[in-house]
Amino acid sequence: MNPKRSNAIWGFVFIAPQLIGLLAFSLIPLIAAFVLSTLDWDGFGAAAFIGIDNFTYAFKNPDFQKAMTNTLYFSVLTVPMGIFLSLLTAVALNNVRMRVVYRLFFFMPVVTSSVAVAIVWMWLLNGDFGIINVLLKLTFGIQGPQWLTDLHLVLPSLAIVSIWKGIGFNMVLFLAGLQGISKDYYEASMIDGATKNQQFWRITLPLLSPTTLFVTIIAVIDSFKVFDTAFVMTSGGPAKASYTMVYHLYELAFKNFQFGKSSAAAVVLFVIILFFTLLQTHLSRKWVHYAD
């Protein structure tokens, strides 16, 4: 057998598991969602083609509007603060001893079950006997709020949980980016008399911009996909104050059995995420710098 052909065959053999998984769990469901978005189907009977009626219903549905507003607000709360804290943590750990140990501690929430994290934080944020309110009472003598039942505090509370859980993942990415910056730049700047502050703003941040772009894109996508914390901690309440887009999709599909309407809302969410991703990629030309 031709060696090149043999190498090609073995190459396809090795990528086959990943390719099959991509087709089965990503591409085929994506195509199915687009097809279902044009159908009226309850998951059991015959499906009827109704064109764009599901999309019209989605944009007129008050629940869809509420879910989109909450999701956008949640994204604004989590993305900037999450990136800032992750970068701050990565910079702090970059030059300390036992960096691997600290990195492990910060990364543990990332690999911990979302349900387990949500249950623990439900106890911490309980307005009556939660440890956070107990500490506020003992330390400052103030009565803590009802974190998960207050209409104005429930989304910020979920944002705190999301930031805490995701900070380790972004921190690892930033650490990899920091360690990839050549020390020659810092040595040259020290010869020119640059301070640590000037090195950070003129060297570290610009050369870390590719990592920052990647982290930002991933953080925005994750913020739009929030579901597990809202599902476990608040069930979308109170009064749908934590009702997110993915929770809306879940209710339409698995509570109301309106798979066509749920798929249409999912397609809209997909388009919105795609828009923000392309927008960030386009704007990155102005602020992302790659080292020569």
Automatic annotation (TrEMBL):
SUPFAM superfamilies: MetI-like (SSF161098). It comes from the Bacteria. It holds the Pfam family BPD_transp_1. The chain crosses the membrane at residues 12-36, 72-93, 100-124, 153-178, 199-221, 259-279. The keyword Metal-binding does not apply. The keyword tRNA-binding does not apply. It is found in: Cell membrane. It is a multi-pass membrane protein. Residues 68-280 form the ABC transmembrane type-1 domain. InterPro entries: ABC_transporter_permease, MetI-like, MetI-like_sf. Keywords: Cell membrane, Membrane, Transmembrane, Transmembrane helix, Transport. One of its GO terms (biological process) is transmembrane transport. One of its GO terms (cellular component) is plasma membrane. Belongs to the binding-protein-dependent transport system permease family. PANTHER family: ABC TRANSPORTER PERMEASE PROTEIN (PTHR30193), INNER MEMBRANE ABC TRANSPORTER PERMEASE PROTEIN YCJO (PTHR30193:SF37). This is Sugar ABC transporter permease. It comes from Paenibacillus montanisoli.
